[in-house]
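Exam prep: given the inputs below (a chain plus magnesium ion), describe the expected output before reading on.
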Amino acid sequence: MPSAITIDSAELRLVELPLLTPFKIATGTQTRKVFPLLILRSGGVEGYAEGVSDVLPDYLPETNVTSMLMLREVFLPQIVGQSFDTPWQLERLMRPWRDHQMAKACVEMAFWDLWAKVLGQPLRALLGGTKTEVEVGVSLGIKEIPATLNDVAAHVQQGYRRIKLKVMRGHDLRLLDAVRARFPDVHLTVDANCAYTLADLPLLRRFDAYGLDYVEQPLAWNDYVDHAVLQRALATPVCLDECIRSSAECRKALAMGAGQVVNIKVGRVGGHVEARRIHDICQAWDVPVWCGGMLEAGIGRAHNIHLSTLEGFSKPGDTSSASRYFERDIVVERLETENGIMPVPSAGPGIGVTLDYDYLEAVSASVERFG
Ligand code: OSB
Ligand code: MG
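Solution:
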């Protein structure tokens, strides 16, 4: 067994996949998924990761341009040709650089996959996960109310464990009235992607009438002060997504009472090491966590599923079937749920999926090689 893994080379691609249907949230409509894909190589072994940045800074400030730039100019030159004993060592090396969590996550997650493959272990086992399958819900984009009712019915029928409705200003209470009238017992949540302000407090208080499991990220992406004010005024738990980009932010947000549930996206917080720290802090506060998604293709989705096997992920995640978003995936294995359960990919060690290089080549807008 090698004592350290030398990163011989890296390959950075920008990948563009069409979405089967447009995905509309409060900040805009997505019709394609464009993302950085990183391959790290050591000997004959490859580790993979997807970035969760997008074309425009409409979710968080990072974009594909900034992610690719940081990877190309800063992170990859720093690690290619170097040896690392563990992912923690790599994470520590990148920690001094400010922000750029999505770019850091690419490097760190690809190294976890590589490390796990060299050790011959499933990623989940090295992360400390205990489950071999995870419970999942769906995130439904904004449509006209009748179309959303059909979407809810279809996904409840398929056995998804929770339905999350995207909402925005002017598209909330009537939607909730309609969905609750037809589905009185379903586990229901809403995600506002920062659409509201504290001036909407009277409106947001009316959400309490719908028995929601939580309301996700109602206020600004960088404001847990106002979220604390809101949480004190609501019976419904507030779930933080955009607001939590590090364990330090998580600690402060929970101490302030800014939320009672946390959505962890490994790609948003800089990688699995930081995701695990957030998980542990939430456990100490008795705050449930669940694994969010960013419409990932198979590599990112596989990472998310492995992370979701940790004990504190006690609510259904957003890692639903890949076929809801893509006609064809960049991995060979199909990541599909059955009755709201997603099996942990296990086609081999690491993240347990195999890259479909033919299709990857066809959907790569650019390829850059390092080392
Ligand atoms: O806020 O969770 C979010 C997708 C893109 C950007 C932000 C979010 C989402 C989702 C999709 O809700 C979840 C999924 O991957 O299915
Ligand atoms: Mg969200």
